[in-house]
């Protein structure tokens, strides 16, 4: 599993020219679900993401969490995060999770977030999407098996 967490001033997702999700200050999170990922792993990543203190406090130090700033979430499933680029120049996606199981885990992550954050928007699983963002900082964190 991989989470690419971007602190944003705004972010949105469009599918077929129509905006389907939009947030203001918060996190845009690209989520890659690989083979062998479980609910337990999803819970660990979600807890870590929601607890990150990467918003500036009154002294401009990264010390506040998403909840502290009433931040919003935009969660986007992105299987390409599971790309294997070791051989050749064409990525292999065989390590990406089975689409049905990956969607179930993605929806589980969404439900965990909605239980704690009032505004949670999502992309469309499996769709061709255009994602726009105004990265704040920029401040980007990668959560993967090397971090957790």
Key features?
6-stranded mixed β-sheet, alpha/beta, single chain, 148 residues, D-tyrosyl-trna(Tyr) Deacylase, Chain: A
Summarize the helices and strands and which ones pair or pack:
Elements: E1 2-15, E2 18-23, E3 26-32, H1 39-51, E4 55-56, E5 62-64, E6 72-77, H2 99-114, E7 120-122, E8 130-143
Parallel strand pairs: 3-6, 6-7
Antiparallel strand pairs: 1-2, 1-3, 1-8, 4-5
Helix pairs in contact: 1-2
The CA-CA distance between the termini, in Å, is 10 Å
**Biggest beta sheet attributes:** 6 strands, mixed
So how many helices? 2
The low-confidence runs, each spanning 5 or more residues with pLDDT under 50, are none
Global structural class: alpha/beta
H/E element string? Answer: EEEHEEEHEE
**Which whole number gives the mean pLDDT?**
95
Number of separate domains? 1
- According to CATH, the fold-level topology is D-tyrosyl-trna(Tyr) Deacylase, Chain: A
The CATH architecture category equals 3-Layer(bba) Sandwich
Strand content: 35-45%
Shape field:
globular
At the first level of CATH, what is the class?
Alpha Beta
């Amino acid at each position: 599993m991989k989470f690419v967490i971007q602190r944003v001033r705004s972010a949105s997702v469009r599918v077929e020219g129509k905006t389907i999700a939009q947030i203001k200050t918060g996190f845009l999170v690209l989520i890659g679900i690989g083979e062998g990922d479980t609910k337990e792993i999803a819970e660990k990543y979600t807890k870590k993401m929601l607890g990150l203190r990467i918003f500036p406090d009154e002294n401009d130090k990264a010390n506040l969490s998403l909840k502290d700033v009433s931040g919003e979430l935009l969660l986007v499933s992105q299987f390409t995060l599971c790309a294997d680029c070791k051989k050749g120049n064409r990525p292999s996606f065989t390590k990406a999770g089975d689409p049905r199981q990956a969607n179930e885990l993605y929806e589980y992550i969404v439900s965990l977030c909605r239980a704690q954050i009032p505004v949670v928007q999502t992309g469309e699983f499996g769709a061709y999407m255009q994602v726009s963002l105004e990265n704040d900082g920029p401040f980007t964190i990668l959560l993967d098996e090397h971090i957790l």
